Amino acid sequence: MTVPLLKIEDLHTYYGHVHALKGVNLEVEEGEIVTLIGANGAGKSTTLRTISGLIRPRQGRIGFDGQLINDLPAHRIVEQGISQAPEGRQVFTTLTVTENLNMGAYTLGGDREAIEENRRRVFDLFPRLEERKNQIGGTLSGGEQQMLTIGRALMARPRILMLDEPSLGLAPMLVKAIFQTIREINARGVTILLVEQNARMALRVADRGYVLQSGEVVLTGSAKNLRQDEMVRRAYLGIH
Q1: Residue 168 belongs to a domain with what CATH number?
Q2: Which listed residue, of 27, 122, 162, 191, carries a Cα 20 to 30 Å from 36's Cα?
Q3: How far apart are CA 213 and CA 227, in angstroms?
Q4: Residues 150, 192: contact at Cβ < 8 Å?
């Protein structure tokens, strides 16, 4: 039996006394796009932050490629092959596009050849970033900043890319472009764990999904089955 690339078991995470994740279980197979959907405050972003080592779980196991990563610091988790593009873009506003991208390649040390090759891959995916490579990050449009955030996460050559609300605040046309890019990244061999408020688009691009409510997984299944589920249609797709 194959081991999932990412396997989370009975994950409990707290913010102080607030019990944010209450026994979350999920799996991501290599090559999949898996989405987490749910209302604000359901625990979606907390799940990603716990996986990436930014928050320590109080209980549970996080396995990546058959190895436990619970106790690893965040930078070691990136080295293992998990990158996160955070919510709200969070580009370095005073650095150029190229400098922002280089910040994502810190796990490569000073390997200039590898950094250059990774940057070429990012520019191939986002030609707009190459056009803007000497522009200051803070002067980019919202869509360009989102491209830069994703590109920076890809500079570490992750096996899993975790995307936190990539379409947030973008115009509908740009949302479509971002989701096309997510498909393209996946087609290039990167497994994706996607947190997205736009459940309709997320379930269109994903293979499987998990529905979170108040820190618990209440439903899981193929994206197709979730799109047809009555509760999902009512609560997240606006179909009554």
Answers
A1: 3.40.50.300
A2: 122
A3: 17
A4: no
